[in-house]
Amino acid sequence: MGAVMGRHGAWWAALGFTVLLAGCGGGGGGGGGTTATASTTTSAQLTVDVDSTCQIPQNGYVNVAPANGASAQCAAGVFSPGVNQSIVTVLFGNGAGVCPANTALLVSASTTNCGTLTNSYIPGQSTTIYLSPAANTALQQFVGNWSLSYQCHCGDSGSCTMPIDSTGHISNGSCTDAEKGPFAVTGAVDANGHFSGGGSSNGDVFSGTLTVSPTSKTGSGTWFLPNSSDSGPWAASAPAP
What we know:
By secondary structure, the protein is mostly beta strands. Helices cover 5% and strands 44% of the residues. Strands 9-10-11-12-13-14-15-16 form an eight-stranded antiparallel barrel. Strands 5-4-1-8 form a four-stranded mixed beta sheet. It has a four-stranded antiparallel beta sheet with strand order 3-2-6-7. The chain is globular, with a radius of gyration of 18 Å.
C-alpha cells in the first residue's frame, strides 16, 4: 500500500519529499478527523478489466491483498468463461475475512498468455481496475528510494525512507517521529501515480500523487490522523531517473 502551512511555510518550501504518518503524537487533538475510518460494513465493488489481448482461462481468478503483504488475500473473484471482466466485492474493516481499512491493495489476475497482471487499488479512487502488460510497465517509473519528511500543525515532525518496488508498493518503509520515535510505513502507488499509505503506530492515513519526469521524481498530498483533528501536508522526492 496518504496541507498545513502557517508559520511553517518557509520550512515546507525547503522540503524534498515529505510524507505523513504517525505524526501529531499519535492520537493527539480532539474532535472527528477529516475522514472517517472505514468500518466492517463499508465495501467497494471493484470492476476488474483485463486487457483483451490476454486470454483468461476458465479458472482465471482475481486476487486482492494488502499492498504491505502483512496479511493474506482479503478478497477474490473468478472470470466467467470467455469474459475478461470480473466484479469483486471488497469489505473493509478489522479481523479475518476483510481488507484493512484505509490501506492500499494489490489486485492481480491469473491469465494464460500474459502471466499474472498486477495493479493497485487505493480506497477512495475509481473502483475500476484495468490490468494489462502496459500497466505493469507504468509502475516501473516509480521504483526507487523515496525520501520523506512531514510536519503536523500540532508541531510534531519526522522523516521517512520509503523504497517503492516494481509492484508499486512500499518495501520495508520506515519513519522516525520526533515525538514517538521509529515506526513502519506501508502503502502503494498505482500506474497513474495515485499514492496512499499509512503508519503502523497510530493508523495515520496519507494520500496524494507521485510524478515522474525525465529530470525529477516528486510528490505531494495531504494526510490526517483518524479520530482527531490532526492533519497536514506531505511532499516527497527520489533520485531522478
